[in-house]
Fold this protein.
Amino acid sequence: MQEKLWTRDFLRLSFVSLFMYLVFYSFMVIVAIYALQQMNASNASAGLAAGDFLLAALVARLIAGHTIEHIGKRRMMLWGLLFYALLQGLYFLAGNIYLFAIIRFVHGLAFGFCATAVSTLAACLVPKTRRGEGMGYFLLSTTLASAIGPFIGLFVYRQSGFETLLLVSLGMSVLAFLLAAGIRVPREETEPAASCCWFRAAELF
């Protein structure tokens, strides 16, 4: 008898991934446009604002890969998603291209940490006997987000403006965090004990 794949936690995590990447893809297509049109940034500055997010995400993934087992997959996911949502709101305060680029960079760090934790936790939630099948289904969330995210970003931006897109993205980020808060780690993947005050605070989740 096959082990159950479509558990509540697996479905929750799939939707967490979907909403997280929808925010990512919807923003990527309009950042440079917004910087050029609304902030009167130079081409170089607009390119920096668009690219530093990806650079930060890469840096965060390199760090997360070495620390996730010490922090715990679930803690890293929740803290990453929390900051991912909070930083989304800071874009409202970005009055110039330099502050905008800084927020983009920090936002990219949060994305890198939570994306690493989400994908690692997905592998733990999938039964070992169905890992290939399960991860294939899980990655459909990323593929779907890459297909419809740019459309959402351009449509909302052109119809209602950047502020509305921020609100839509903030809503999806908060929803991703709330869904993630209900996910439980399997017994064999028990979270490690926190070793400092920062990680003890994470145990609240």
Remarks:
- Residues 43-71 form the longest helix (29 residues).
- The CA atoms of residues 5 and 130 lie 7 Å apart.
- The chain has nine helices and no strands.
- The mean pLDDT is 85.
